[in-house]
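1st attempt posting a full record on here, be nice pls
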Amino acid sequence: MIHRVADILRARMLAISCGYEDADDLDALRHDPGFKLALGKLPGYVLRLASQPTMSR
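the predicted structure (as tokens):
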């Protein structure tokens, strides 16, 4: 799956602002409906947000 750099950065900044300093937390947050909505994706959106390995690349 291809993620836009802007989406990856937005997710990382939002996670940090919510108190999730480690990128490891993004594995769980990528399925969170509220987090998806905050990033402009619909909660029922089939494609997931970027995961921790994607962030590390």
